[in-house]
């Protein structure tokens, strides 16, 4: 695997110069913002601790993304309540929680895919390397170029494997055949798919099996050399063997990319992630190093969930 | 206990334990009979409905084929009678009556005798020149079967005119002698008339009626039980006084609008042309006929007199033919001064002789039979070369060459293009001249090969041949002789045309008209209408569909889509009416502005789009921020949300909408402002005259045609070379600065486009080429442009709806994947959504095409209905559908015209069927790709 050699020369993967590691996380995490207080009172009935339990170890990591007092409404219905969550750089962060707890909504906010939904309204802020991504003058297209995203269901385009992988370069106007094939090979190797498809790059991406398609989507997501890789339940539509391959892949990509993975599968979260955040009913409940969350959860809700008592 | 009911779905509701009944509880589940019955009924009804639909479509096709089928049935000559005749040799003239019951024979001594057509029995005798006949014979004779008039010259030089016909009267049964009546009654039908065909009953009854000789005529019993008497009737006028005394050798007559015209050749080689002038004495009521004549000499080769003299139907041309094929043509449009108009050699080979010459119906085309067995059809046509005095030349349009034996006699029908020919070897054939088809042929017995007289009955239903001793009659079974595949789809040389052409002209004012059933102009018109309406409608509809499905928020889309779909509810007759009476006159007034609008409106859109890049984003972001502040301060009411959306992206969409609404009037006013200037520059100040090639040069036309090409070339060049060069600039400059640069580049590119087009146009004009008369040309008010607009308007909703559905059916996951990869909405649409939805887009186009092909009312009202084959966008056309709508009400049921119109319907059916089948095949191939999604 040329994983190490190829990733060295990518500037976007090196730690950012203006890394906001020295920012006072504690201050921003202190509690709900002033404009949220009114709503907070309305939701008092929910029997959950209003404040998230965030382990200190997370706060001490240098972080690339900061989600701060973030709330989101689909029309009148609130889906996220005042989520505050730093994402450490170069680590794998897993979001777990029962269905409908807002994991996918949150991850889709990171590259502003929720813009596509007309009725969405947000409050709070998400910052990528210190710059707000929700500000009105942010170029969403440029923002998304810095993030790769893989969806729950494999969604290769109805074109050849080659064109699927180099799609991010194509839309940037890259026409150089040599560059394209280099990137294609490197991405497919990174996605552990090269050996299986190297002889049939001209074939349609739809001819691959489900697991291969998902790895193709990962290859496509990393072809644009993003800073953050967002995986939205990437294995939920796959069989155990394909899941194992994807998990291996996440292991290999660790360190090279910042990975945020949403998963239903707690074993998976414990296997692949460095940090785990447990969300419930639109709130972040507990967030800490994976082994601590799974072995010594601080809150009883977390413990109840990971031991399978509800959810 | 729970395991005992495995069929129950796992319930989320937990019952208290007491509610679960103790002991095994098994419920018998049976489908109620009512459900079974409903299921069976539904299946039966649906099966019946589906089969019924298929059957209905098949039946429509079968019905069309059933009506069209007789057009292509082979023609036949069925023997009807054979009898001995009581005279010998060739008479001057034979005339058959309307019902083919009797025929009159004119002999050289002025005797006229009538014979029964089935038995050859003599019925009546008349004599010309009663009282004054002193053994004189007729030296020249002519008879016009259409008018029943004759003219003759005696060998003492006297000219005489008159009328031979058959009078029909009905005899009261009491006056009919008993034996005759009994005979007629007993015979029923088909006893002593012309024998009916034994194989199958004749389609027309008359010859099969029994007939008897009565009062020097033929008595028949009609199917209604009346007794109908046919009698020979001869009228004769007093001899005419004429100039000169030389005996008349050849004579012909014609009925012109200003009276009867006579042309005769005297033995001294002079051609005389005379118009008869009738004067009625008001006191005595006596009619005197005088001749107003002129003459000119005929050049006689080796002093030989010609064998044939023919006067055309309008009396304006005289053809004089020698047996060696030499023909001289005289222009007699002024009878007092005949002028020689030209000479033609009808036969190239020196040894071949002309054996017979007759006029076809209408007395315009000459049918010339020769000793090689050829029958050639010659007619005058204006070819544009001015070597003849009247600008016309005689052209050989058709050649019927079925035999090596010499042509002996020809007989032309008086109502159609049928031509019967008898050959020296005893063969008798009938031809259809226009299609050059030999319809049928028969052979006479070896003993009676020399046909002296050949006659076609006035109704074209019987053919008679007289040999020296016998009479032969055949029934002609040819209801649609003028139809063949070649005549329908190929180029046909019609009478008076300089060359073979595709023509549709099914009817005309005169009876001797040659119907022209070329379907090509109609098929062409259909394709032209379809092409121009798709050219206008398809891009608009497809782009609108892409815009709606990819760029509009669901809320706006929910308004836009039903609105466009509502356009389809406009009845096409209303659209056609608006097109013809409102749009067409307006377009005629503002043509240059309209043509310009095709360029200025897109320009305005692009210009505003580029201009909005400069500040729109910052402006809307600022407004968004401000609004957000207002909103959080509670200053905005809830209803304001709808008008002023919170998010800046949605706000930008409102901006775009405003820009688009603004761009249309901007582009149009630009067109109005530029219109007169461009008209002066390119179209010599008057586009109508310029299109008609009266003024100006081809520059404007080239400019019009090259403009789209130039746009294409510049766009390709821009994307291939300039775009990559700009990329680093875009990365380093600020957004606003680059937006300014982009706007400047856009303006420069537009200027380059116009410059390129005008350079190319100037170059092509300098080469002397002028495209006027091809795709642009003389302006007609009802034209393809109007139809393109309005039919485009009619097909937009259909294409739009299907295309939009296809685009919306593309899985959202693909769109999300593309957008998440950092593609713009346009890149997502162009690279992912449109290729994936290609099958649906294609079928939307095909559905639009099908609608355009079958559309009737719009083209009927707005296309001018001229069956022309001309790509000129400013000219009219006639489509198959409009043609059926126009002509079917006036077509006689089961006539050739009627059946050809059904053939047009069948063609339309086949056209749409083929289009849809091809579309379906292509669509399925496209769909394979997207199938696995």
- Major sheet characteristics of chain B: 6 strands, antiparallel
Tell me the strand order in the biggest sheet of chain B.
6-7-8-11-10-9
Question: Which descriptor suits the 3D outline of chain A?
Answer: globular
Largest interface, by Cβ-Cβ below 8 angstroms: which chains and how many residues each?
A-B, 41 and 41 residues
The amount of beta strand of chain B, in percent, is: 15-25%
What is the terminal separation of chain B in angstroms? 45 Å
Per DSSP, the total helix count of chain A is 14
The chain-level mean pLDDT of chain A equals 79
Compute the CA-based radius of gyration of chain B.
41 Å
Kindly, what is the distance between the CA atoms of the first and last residues of chain A, rounded to a whole number of angstroms?
Answer: 39 Å
What quaternary form is this?
heterodimer
Per the principal axes of the C-alpha atoms, what is the gross shape of chain B? elongated
Enumerate how many helices of chain B there are, as a single number. Answer: 19
- pLDDT below 50 for ≥5 consecutive residues: which ranges of chain B? 1-7, 196-209
Q: What fraction, in percent, of the residue positions of chain B are helical?
A: 40-55%
Instruction: Give the rounded overall mean pLDDT of chain B.
Output: 85
Beta-strand segment tally of chain A = 11
Q: Which structural class do the helices and strands of chain B define?
A: alpha+beta
Give the proportion of residues in helices of chain A: 25-40%
The beta-strand count of chain B equals 32
What are the secondary-structure elements of chain A, in order, as H or E? Answer: HHHEHEEEHEEHEHHHHEHEHEEHH
Produce the secondary structure layout.
The complex is a heterodimer of chains A (311) and B (933).
Chain A: H1 3-8, H2 25-28, H3 37-42, E1 53-54, H4 56-60, E2 63-74, E3 77-88, E4 92-96, H5 103-110, E5 120-128, E6 131-132, H6 140-145, E7 147-150, H7 161-171, H8 177-190, H9 194-197, H10 210-223, E8 228-232, H11 240-253, E9 258-262, H12 266-272, E10 275-280, E11 283-289, H13 290-295, H14 300-306
Parallel strand pairs in A: 1-11, 4-9, 4-10, 7-8, 8-9
Antiparallel strand pairs in A: 2-3, 2-5, 5-6, 10-11
Helix pairs in contact in A: 7-8, 7-10, 8-10, 10-11
Chain B: H1 33-68, E1 76-84, E2 93-96, E3 102-106, E4 111-116, E5 122-127, E6 138-144, E7 149-154, E8 159-171, H2 178-187, E9 211-214, E10 217-221, E11 227-236, E12 248-256, E13 259-266, E14 270-280, E15 287-297, E16 308-311, E17 317-321, E18 326-331, E19 339-345, E20 354-359, E21 366-370, E22 374-382, E23 392-401, E24 407-412, E25 418-423, E26 427-432, E27 437-443, E28 453-456, E29 462-466, E30 470-477, H3 485-489, E31 504-505, E32 516-517, H4 520-551, H5 554-567, H6 572-589, H7 591-632, H8 640-643, H9 648-682, H10 687-691, H11 699-732, H12 735-766, H13 784-808, H14 812-820, H15 825-836, H16 838-854, H17 857-862, H18 880-887, H19 896-930
Antiparallel strand pairs in B: 1-30, 2-3, 3-4, 4-5, 6-7, 7-8, 8-11, 9-10, 10-11, 12-13, 13-14, 14-15, 16-17, 17-18, 18-19, 20-21, 21-22, 22-23, 24-25, 25-26, 26-27, 28-29, 29-30, 31-32
């Amino acid at each position: 695997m040329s994983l190490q050699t190829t990733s060295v020369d990518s500037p976007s993967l090196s730690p950012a110069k203006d890394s906001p590691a020295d920012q006072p996380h504690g201050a921003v995490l202190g509690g709900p913002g002033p404009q949220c207080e009114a709503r907070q009172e309305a939701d008092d009935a929910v029997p959950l601790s209003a404040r998230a339990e965030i382990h200190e170890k997370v706060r001490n990591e240098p972080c690339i993304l900061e989600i701060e007092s973030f709330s989101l409404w689909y029309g009148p219905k609130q889906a996220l309540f005042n989520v505050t969550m730093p994402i450490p750089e170069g680590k794998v962060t897993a979001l777990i929680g029962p269905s409908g707890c807002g994991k996918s909504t949150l991850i889709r906010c990171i590259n502003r895919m929720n813009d596509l939904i007309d009725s969405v309204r947000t409050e709070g802020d998400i910052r990528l390397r210190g710059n707000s991504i929700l500000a009105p003058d942010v170029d969403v297209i440029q923002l998304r170029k810095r993030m790769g995203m893989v969806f729950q269901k494999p969604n290769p385009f109805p074109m050849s494997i080659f064109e699927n992988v180099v799609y991010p370069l194509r839309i940037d106007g890259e026409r150089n055949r040599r560059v394209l094939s280099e990137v294609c090979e490197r991405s497919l190797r990174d996605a552990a798919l090269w050996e299986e498809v190297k002889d049939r790059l001209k074939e349609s991406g739809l001819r691959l099996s489900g697991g291969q398609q998902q790895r193709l989507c990962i290859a496509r997501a990393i072809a644009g050399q993003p800073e953050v890789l967002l995986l939205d339940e990437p294995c939920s539509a796959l069989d155990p063997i394909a899941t194992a391959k994807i998990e291996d892949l996440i292991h290999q990509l660790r360190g090279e990319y910042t990975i945020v993975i949403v998963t239903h599968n707690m074993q998976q979260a414990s296997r692949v992630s460095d940090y785990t955040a447990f969300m419930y009913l639109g709130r972040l409940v507990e967030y800490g190093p994976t082994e601590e969350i799974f072995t010594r959860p601080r809150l009883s809700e977390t413990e109840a969930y990971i031991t399978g008592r509800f959810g | 206990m729970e395991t005992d009911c495995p069929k129950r779905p796992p319930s989320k509701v937990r019952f208290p334990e007491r509610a679960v009944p103790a002991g095994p509880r098994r419920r018998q589940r049976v489908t109620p009979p009512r459900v079974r019955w409903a299921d069976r009924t539904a299946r039966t009804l649906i099966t019946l409905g589906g089969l019924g639909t298929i059957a209905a479509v098949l039946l429509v096709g079968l019905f069309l084929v059933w009506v069209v089928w007789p057009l292509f049935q082979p023609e036949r000559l069925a023997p009807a009678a054979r009898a001995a005749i009581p005279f010998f040799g060739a008479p001057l003239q034979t005339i058959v009556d309307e019902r083919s019951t009797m025929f009159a024979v004119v002999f050289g001594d002025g005797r006229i005798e009538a014979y029964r057509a089935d038995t050859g029995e003599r019925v009546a005798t008349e004599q010309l020149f009663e009282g004054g006949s002193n053994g004189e014979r007729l030296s020249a004779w002519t008879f016009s079967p259409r008018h029943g008039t004759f003219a003759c010259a005696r060998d003492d030089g006297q000219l005489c005119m008159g009328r031979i016909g058959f009078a029909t009267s009905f005899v009261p049964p009491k006056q009919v002698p008993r034996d005759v009546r009994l005979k007629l009654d007993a015979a029923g039908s088909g006893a002593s008339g012309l024998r009916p065909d034994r194989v199958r009953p004749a389609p027309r009854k008359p010859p099969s009626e029994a007939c008897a000789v009565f009062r020097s005529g033929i008595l028949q019993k009609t199917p209604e039980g009346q007794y109908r008497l046919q009698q020979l009737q001869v009228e004769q006028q007093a001899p005419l006084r004429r100039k000169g005394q030389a005996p008349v050798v050849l004579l012909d007559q014609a009925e012109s609008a200003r009276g009867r015209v006579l042309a005769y050749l005297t033995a001294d080689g002079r051609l005389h042309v005379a118009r008869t002038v009738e004067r009625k004495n008001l006191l005595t009521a006596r009619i005197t006929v005088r001749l107003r004549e002129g003459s000119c000499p005929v050049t006689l080769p080796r002093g030989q007199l010609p064998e044939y003299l023919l006067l055309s139907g309008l009396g304006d041309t005289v053809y004089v033919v020698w047996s060696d094929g030499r023909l001289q043509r005289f222009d007699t449009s002024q009878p007092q001064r005949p002028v020689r108009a030209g000479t033609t050699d009808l036969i190239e080979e020196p040894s071949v002789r002309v054996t017979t010459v007759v006029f076809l119906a209408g007395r315009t085309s000459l049918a010339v039979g020769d000793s090689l067995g050829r029958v050639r059809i010659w007619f005058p046509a204006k070819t544009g070369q001015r070597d003849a005095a009247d600008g016309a030349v005689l052209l050989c349009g058709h050649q019927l060459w079925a035999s090596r034996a010499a042509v002996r006699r020809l007989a032309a029908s008086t109502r159609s293009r049928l031509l019967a020919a008898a050959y020296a070897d005893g063969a008798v054939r009938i031809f259809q001249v226009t299609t050059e088809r030999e319809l049928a042929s028969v052979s006479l017995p070896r003993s009676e090969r020399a046909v002296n007289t050949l006659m076609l009955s006035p109704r074209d239903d019987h053919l008679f041949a007289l040999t020296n001793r016998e009479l032969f009659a055949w029934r002609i079974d040819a209801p649609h002789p003028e139809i063949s595949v070649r005549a329908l789809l190929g180029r046909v040389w019609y009478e008076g045309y300089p060359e073979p052409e595709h023509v549709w002209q099914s009817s005309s004012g005169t009876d001797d008209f040659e119907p022209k059933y070329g379907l090509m102009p109609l098929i062409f018109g259909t394709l032209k209408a379809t092409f121009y309406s798709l050219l206008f409608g398809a891009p608009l509809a497809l782009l609108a569909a892409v815009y709606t499905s990819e760029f509009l928020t669901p809320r706006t889309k929910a308004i836009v889509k039903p609105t466009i779909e509502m356009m389809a509810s406009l009845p096409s007759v209303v659209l056609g009416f608006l097109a013809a009476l409102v749009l067409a006159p307006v377009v005629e007034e503002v043509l240059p502005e309209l043509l310009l609008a095709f360029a200025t409106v897109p320009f305005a859109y692009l210009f505003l789009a580029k201009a909005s890049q400069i500040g729109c984003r910052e402006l809307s972001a600022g407004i968004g921020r401000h609004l957000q502040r207002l909103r959080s301060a509670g200053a905005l009411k809830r209803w304001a949300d709808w008008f002023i959306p919170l998010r800046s992206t949605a706000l930008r969409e409102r901006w775009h909408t405003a820009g688009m609404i603004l761009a249309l009037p901007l582009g149009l006013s630009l067109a109005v402002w530029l219109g007169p200037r461009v008209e002066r520059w390119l179209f010599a100040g008057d586009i109508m005259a310029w299109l008609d090639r009266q003024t100006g040069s081809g520059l404007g036309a080239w400019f019009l045609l090259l403009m789209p090409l130039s746009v294409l070339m510049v766009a390709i060049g821009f994307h291939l070379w300039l775009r990559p060069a700009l990329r680093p600039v875009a990365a380093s400059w600020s957004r606003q600065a680059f937006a300014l640069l982009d706007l400047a580049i856009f303006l420069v590119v537009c200027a380059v486009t116009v410059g390129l087009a005008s350079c190319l146009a100037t170059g092509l004009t300098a080469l002397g080429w002028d495209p006027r008369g091809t795709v642009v040309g003389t302006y007609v008010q009802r034209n393809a442009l109007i139809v393109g607009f309005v039919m485009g308007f009619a097909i937009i909703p259909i294409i739009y709806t299907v295309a939009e559905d296809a685009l919306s059916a593309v899985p959202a996951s693909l769109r999300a994947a593309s957008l998440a990869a950092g593609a713009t909405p346009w890149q997502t649409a162009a690279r992912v959504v449109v290729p994936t939805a290609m099958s649906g887009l294609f079928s939307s186009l095909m559905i639009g095409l099908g609608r355009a092909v079958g559309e009737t009312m719009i083209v009927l009202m707005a296309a001018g209905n001229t069956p022309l084959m001309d790509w000129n966008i400013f000219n009219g056309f006639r489509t198959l559908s409009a043609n059926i709508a126009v002509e079917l009400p006036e077509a006689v049921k089961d006539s050739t015209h009627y059946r050809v119109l059904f053939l047009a319907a069948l063609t339309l059916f086949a056209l749409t069927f083929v289009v849809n089948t091809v579309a379906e095949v292509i669509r399925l191939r496209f769909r394979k790709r997207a199938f696995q999604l």
